[in-house]
């Protein structure tokens, strides 16, 4: 569990700089330059992510069961993760109405993804991992909305075509991940 927690502290810590120290981040980027900042940010993120994966794998070998979720929670999680994949995709497809309306779909997708996994899993490692991501995404979304209000950010209206592409691509990614990549990367088949 120690490696999982260390990985979460590093990964979410790096991703929390704008939440807790936006002024420091801005001055550091100005001092180091955007390329150096992104390089250091990426290295720390990769290190944290690797520790999360390793620590979660270790923790799953000796699970501490807190509760056993009802089977129906897996179905709810599947539906919620489908929506989260569409939200993740909305962060990258330009001109879609989802981003125009929600402003920060990646953060909302992360909240939904983490919540879905908390519904379907009852081990201590799951609660630590997904609970941490949920708390981070809630704080991150609130901070991003505050920054938008302070800057007077206006999001352009989306088009039906871009929104349709977003939904189709997000759904296709979800199918690929749920039916194949989840088992390959995580070792768990969500629909078995």
Written overview of the protein:
By secondary structure, the chain is mainly alpha-helical. It has 2 domains: 1-62; 64-192, no CATH class. 79% of the residues lie in helices and 0% in strands. It has 9 helices and no strands. Helix 1 packs parallel to helix 8 (124-151), helix 5 runs antiparallel to helix 7 and helix 7 runs antiparallel to helix 8.
Helix/strand layout:
Blueprint: H1 2-14, H2 17-20, H3 22-32, H4 34-61, H5 72-90, H6 97-102, H7 105-120, H8 124-151, H9 160-186
Helix pairs in contact: 1-4, 1-8, 3-4, 5-7, 5-9, 7-8
Which tags fit this structure?
192 residues; mainly alpha; 2 domains
What is the terminal-to-terminal distance?
Answer: 27 Å
Q: Which residues sit in consecutive blocks of at least 5 with pLDDT less than 50?
A: none
Main sheet characteristics: none
β-strand percent reads under 5%
Number of domain units: 2
In terms of quaternary structure, what is this? single chain
Question: What form results from the Cα inertia axes?
Answer: globular
Helix content: over 70%
In short:
With 192 residues, the chain is an all-alpha fold.
């Amino acid at each position: 569990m120690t490696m999982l927690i260390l990985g979460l502290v590093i990964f979410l810590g790096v991703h929390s700089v704008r939440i807790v120290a936006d002024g420091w981040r801005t001055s550091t980027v100005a001092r180091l330059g955007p390329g150096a900042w992104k390089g250091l940010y990426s290295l720390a993120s990769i290190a944290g992510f690797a520790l999360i994966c390793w620590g979660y794998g270790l923790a799953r070998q000796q699970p501490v069961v807190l509760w056993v979720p009802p089977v129906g929670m897996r179905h709810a999680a599947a539906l919620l993760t489908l929506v989260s994949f569409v939200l993740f995709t909305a962060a990258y497809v330009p001109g879609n109405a989802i981003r125009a309306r929600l402003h920060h779909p990646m953060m909302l997708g992360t909240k939904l993804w983490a919540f879905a996994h908390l519904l379907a899993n009852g081990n201590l490692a799951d609660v630590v991992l997904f609970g941490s991501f949920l708390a981070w995404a809630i704080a991150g979304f609130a901070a991003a909305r505050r920054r938008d209000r302070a800057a007077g950010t206006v999001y352009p209206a989306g088009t039906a075509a871009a929104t349709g592409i977003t939904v189709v691509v997000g759904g296709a990614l979800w199918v690929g991940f749920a039916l194949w990549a989840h088992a390959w990367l995580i070792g768990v088949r969500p629909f078995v």
